[in-house]
Write a structure and sequence with these properties.
Elements (H helix, E strand, L loop, with lengths): L7 H7 L5 H7 L7 E3 L5 E3 L1 H6 L7 E7 L9 H14 L4 E5 L4 H5 L7 E2 L2 E4 L1 H5 L5 H21 L6 E6 L3 E3 L9 E3 L10 E3 L1 E3 L4 H8 L3 H9 L2 E5 L4 E3 L6 H8 L6 E5 L4 E4 L14 H10 L2 E5 L4 H16 L5 E6 L1 H7 L12 H7 L1 H11 L5 E6 L6 H12 L4 E5 L1 H4 L5 H13 L14 H13 L3 E4 L1 H12 L7 E4 L19 E10 L4 E6 L18 E2 L5 E2 L3
Parallel strand pairs: 3-16, 3-17, 4-15, 4-16, 8-11, 17-18, 18-19, 20-22, 21-23
Antiparallel strand pairs: 1-2, 2-14, 5-6, 6-14, 7-12, 9-10, 12-13, 14-15, 22-23, 24-25
Helix pairs in contact: 4-18, 7-8, 7-10, 9-10, 13-14
């Protein structure tokens, strides 16, 4: 029950972890096939990943959710608890998750290692520096920026138009003051004065490339295609043109390897890569997912934020690029979040309110409909709270069954794997009885404008798509340059199906506003900015950082 319990970090710190070599042994991995980062973290070696390439794939299960609310949904917690439940049923399962960003940890969201008794550990390491992957991405990104500015300073042989520089610097922290800056101030030796910008590391194209690359060869080819600017003739200038690829790849040579850790119940987990789903493509690395499919009979992965963002991009970007075909989808909701969508204030969510539940459940309904469009069987799970009543749970159960969805109650936050047995059994039953007929939402051959309108109307429920004149010009230019066959990566607020975070429930007939589009040529998609979404978040008035501390014995508090 969700009454008074220990905090997530207290639970994690009191856990008895198995040495990572023991966790690896469950999967038949020898110690020499690991690259150890202390006792409880390791990277998989290239030799191990090459060794298992010929094995058959396991079943792929995606965990997604309704639109996030202040009431909480628990998608990562559910993913971890489901993996633990599979293990309790004697199934060989592995979890594949994203790495947390420092921005939310010190901002408003807190950590992202799960919660309660369904967590990945070591929790503090995971939420802070982990194995240094994000630092490597940041360094590679900023090395490219430095080489670009140095090229201009040293004579600009490539004739780069300094008014058309599109590459931005990055850091893995929420810092609104860096969104728009001026660099090169000072004397002539201090560089060319120009406007510049920062994005958060998880929005860097290099993060997307790391998460979509198959191997080092593919990584370097993708890095070489990054468009950093345009010359005076309007032609793209790439990282390859700047001779930056080798040095960036050297910084990323360890970061490209998936990280092996464990859950509180010692279930293996690969945690690798971390693009946000509201401003990037929101999935862990292709390399980790493909490797996990070879390592176990069941791979449980997740996609960020609601299914309108994370799941759509998992399907249309990650699966398209990697040839993945998911076997089932778990859609996470809570009674509290559905009532919030029905207009109930956060302070009043603990009171039974069937009328509000009926009003707010349309958000869940839209996500169910959207997932069915991809041809994958859906299991809806309610992440249980003590305040949920039997009448509320029964209402949601009937609602799902009437829409050809399986339903299961989840208590993994409170009980760990034991609280996920009902869900695990329902997923196994679904895998056995329902075939997946996975299909993409749109074809490569469609033009960029049509792809954007398809996502806006089919997934978000928009009635009209309004393109700013500058966005139309950018899309036309990208088509001319040969990028029209790319999928689109929609940058949109996560709180609503629309581009207005205040429109809860299931808004219909609204106008979606497209303000900018640019190519991530190395990642292989076109980023489309909607509404007021920012690629560099800011800190709230009371950031989580105010509550984080470490005592004289090195014990961290307040991280989650």
């Amino acid at each position: 029950m969700r009454g008074y319990m220990k905090t997530d970090i207290q639970i994690a710190q009191e856990a008895e972890m198995t040495p990572i070599t023991g966790v690896a042994a469950q999967l038949g991995i020898e110690q020499e096939e690991l690259e150890l980062y202390g006792r409880y973290k390791a990277k998989l070696s290239d030799s191990y990943m090459e060794k298992i390439k010929g094995r058959p794939d396991g079943r792929l299960i995606l965990v997604t959710a309704i639109n996030p609310t202040p009431a909480g949904e628990g998608k990562t917690t559910t993913s971890i608890g489901l993996g633990q439940a599979f293990a309790r049923l004697g199934k060989k399962a592995i979890i594949a998750l994203r790495e947390p960003s420092l921005g939310p940890c010190f901002g408003i969201k807190g950590g992202a290692a799960g919660g309660g008794y369904s967590q990945v550990v070591p929790m503090e390491d995971l939420n802070l520096h982990f194995t240094g992957d994000f630092h490597a991405v940041t360094s590679a990104n900023n090395l490219l920026a430095a080489l670009l500015d140095n090229h201009i300073q040293q004579g600009n042989e490539l004739n780069i138009d300094t008014r058309q520089i599109v590459w931005k610097r990055c850091e893995d922290m929420n810092d609104r003051a860096l969104r728009n800056i001026v660099v090169g101030l000072g004397g002539r030796t201090d560089g060319f004065v120009r406007e510049d910008h920062f994005v958060i590391t998880v929005a860097s194209e290099i993060m997307a490339i790391l998460c979509l690359a198959d191997d080092m060869k593919d990584l370097k080819e993708r890095l070489s295609r990054i468009v950093v600017a345009y010359n005076y003739a309007g032609e793209p200038v790439t990282a390859g043109d700047l001779q930056a690829v080798g040095a960036m790849a050297a910084l990323l040579k360890d970061a490209i390897k998936p990280n092996l850790v464990q859950t509180l119940e010692h279930t293996p987990a690969l945690v690798h890569g971390g693009p946000f789903a509201n401003i990037a493509h929101g999935c862990n690395s292709v390399r980790a997912t493909k490797t996990a499919l070879k390592m176990a009979d069941y791979c449980i992965t997740e996609a960020g934020f609601g299914a309108d963002l994370g799941a759509e991009k998992f399907f249309d970007i990650k699966c398209r690029a990697a040839g993945l075909k998911p076997d089932a989808v778990v859609l996470v909701a809570t009674v509290r979040a559905l009532k919030y969508n029905g207009g109930v204030a956060k302070a009043d969510l603990n009171v039974e309110n069937l009328k509000a539940l009926q009003k707010g459940i349309v958000n869940l309904e839209k996500h169910i409909e959207n997932l069915h469009k991809f041809g994958v069987p859906v299991v809806v799970t309610l992440n249980s709270f003590i305040t949920d009543t039997e009448e509320e749970i029964s209402f949601v159960r009937r609602f799902c069954l009437e829409r050809d969805c399986e339903f299961a109650l989840s208590r993994v936050w409170e009980k760990g794997g034991a609280g996920g047995l009902e869900l695990a059994e329902k997923v196994l039953e679904t895998l056995e009885k329902k075939e997946s007929h996975f299909e993409l939402l749109y074809k490569d051959s469609e033009n960029l404008k049509d792809k954007i309108e398809t996502v806006a109307r089919e997934i978000y429920g928009a009635g009209n798509v309004n393109f700013a004149p500058s966005a139309l010009k950018q899309l036309s230019k990208l088509e001319e340059l040969g990028f029209g066959h790319f999928p689109v990566c929609m940058a949109k607020n996560q709180y609503s199906l629309s581009d207005d975070p205040k429109l809860l429930g299931r808004p219909v007939g609204f106008e979606l506003n497209i303000r900018e589009a640019y190519v991530s040529a190395g990642a292989g998609f076109v980023v489309v900015l909607t509404g007021a979404v920012m690629t560099m978040p800011g800190l709230p008035k009371q950031p989580a950082a105010h509550s984080i501390d470490v005592d004289d014995n090195g014990i961290i508090t307040g991280l989650f």
